[in-house]
Specification:
Length: 313
C-alpha cells in the first residue's frame, strides 16, 4: 500500500508523542451507551463524525469483535496486498498502516488517519453491524470479518483489559465474565456482534472467517482472503505469508505486536498484547459451572442462526 512521505513522517512521530504524554494523565475510560451499544466516552463524543464517515468504493474494511484475531488478520491482509513482501509491512506499526476508524486518543484519531490516507485504503473497526457507518453499505465496500469462539474470546478480552490502562477496570475474572456475557463491555454483546455480521454476509460482500479455522490451516484461510480480494498467490508467496504470520513470528514482530506503544498505555508486565494465540486456553480460566452456563447461553443466543463455533481443535 502506498504511503506519502508526510504520512510516513507522521507515523514515525507517533511513538514519541505517546511517550511525551504524562503517565498520570492516562486513565481508564468509562462506557457510554451509543445506539444501544456500550462504547468509550471518547467515541461517543465524536459519534456524529464516525457515523458520517465517507467510505470509498475501493475501501477494504477489516472488522472483528475485540480480541478475535484482528491484528493477525490485518497483517495477513497487508502481506497479501504487498504480494508477500515483509519489508513493505515493516515500514510502520500495524495501527498506523490500517487506521482504526472509531478510535480517538490524545495523540491519535483513527478517523483523521483514515481520511488522510490515499486510496485504496484498508481500515479497521470493531463496530457491530448496526453501528457501521452507512457509507460502507452504500459504496458496497468489501469487508472481512473474523470471529472467535466465545470462551477464548472472553479470556483474551479479559487479559487485554488488564494490560491496557485505558480500558475500563475489568475487576476479577468472575466479574468480567458476568459483564461480558451480559454485553456490558466495550463494543457490546459478543452474541449480537457475531450474529449480526453472519447475517450481513448474505446481503453484502463480507468474507466471514473463523479464528479456529485459521489456527487449523492458515494457508487455506489465506487463500480465501486472496481470492476475496482478487489477488493471485503463487505457492512461494503463499508460503512466505504463512511463515510471516505464524503466531510466534507475529508475537516477536514489533510492527505487529504493539510493543511500540509505551508501557504506560499497554503494560506488558501484566500481559503481552499477543499472549498465547491458542484454541482452548479458556480451560485454564473457566470453572465447570461457568463453562456449562456459557454453553447454555450460547445455544440459546445462536439458535436458528446456523452459526457454530469450535472451542477446541
Amino acid at each position: 500500500m502506498a504511503r506519502t512521505p508526510g504520512h510516513a513522517a507522521k507515523i514515525m512521530d507517533l511513538g514519541s508523542r505517546m511517550k511525551d504524554l504524562d503517565p498520570k494523565s492516562i486513565q481508564r475510560t468509562e462506557l457510554v451507551d451509543v445506539m444501544g451499544v456500550p462504547l468509550f466516552t471518547e467515541i461517543s463524543e465524536i459519534w456524529g463524525s464516525i457515523w458520517d464517515f465517507q467510505a470509498k468504493p475501493d475501501d477494504l474494511l477489516i472488522c472483528t469483535y475485540p480480541k478475535a484475531g484482528t491484528t493477525w488478520l490485518q497483517e495477513i491482509v497487508a502481506m497479501v496486498q504487498s504480494e508477500g513482501d515483509p519489508q513493505k509491512c515493516d515500514q510502520a506499526p500495524i495501527y498506523n498502516r490500517i487506521p482504526f476508524i472509531e478510535m480517538i486518543h490524545p495523540v491519535l484519531s483513527g478517523l483523521k488517519e483514515a481520511e488522510a490516507m490515499p486510496s485504496p485504503r484498508t481500515l479497521k473497526s470493531h463496530l457491530p453491524v448496526q453501528l457501521l457507518p452507512p457509507s460502507f453499505w452504500e459504496q458496497n465496500c468489501k469487508i472481512i470479518y473474523v470471529a472467535r469462539n466465545v470462551k477464548d474470546n472472553a479470556v483474551s478480552y479479559f487479559h487485554f483489559h488488564r494490560m491496557d490502562q485505558e480500558m475500563p477496570e475489568p475487576g476479577t475474572w468472575d466479574q468480567f465474565l458476568e459483564n461480558f456475557i451480559a454485553g456490558k463491555v466495550c463494543w457490546g454483546s459478543w452474541f449480537d456482534h457475531v450474529k449480526g455480521w453472519w447475517e450481513a454476509k448474505d446481503r453484502h460482500p463480507v468474507l466471514y472467517l473463523f479464528y479456529e479455522d485459521m489456527k487449523e490451516d492458515l494457508a487455506r484461510e489465506i487463500r480465501k482472503v486472496a481470492e476475496f480480494l482478487g489477488i493471485e498467490l503463487p505457492e512461494p508467496v503463499l508460503n512466505r505469508i504463512v511463515q510471516h504470520t505464524t503466531f510466534d513470528n507475529m508475537k516477536t514482530n514489533p510492527m505487529a505486536n504493539y510493543s511500540t506503544i509505551p508501557p504506560s498505555f499497554m503494560d506488558p508486565t501484566v500481559s503481552t498484547f499477543m499472549r498465547k494465540g491458542t484454541v482452548g486456553d479458556w480451560k485454564e480460566h473457566f470453572t465447570v459451572a461457568q463453562s456449562e452456563c456459557l454453553d447454555e447461553v450460547c445455544a440459546r443466543e445462536l439458535e436458528g442462526s446456523n452459526l457454530t463455533f469450535r472451542t477446541q481443535l
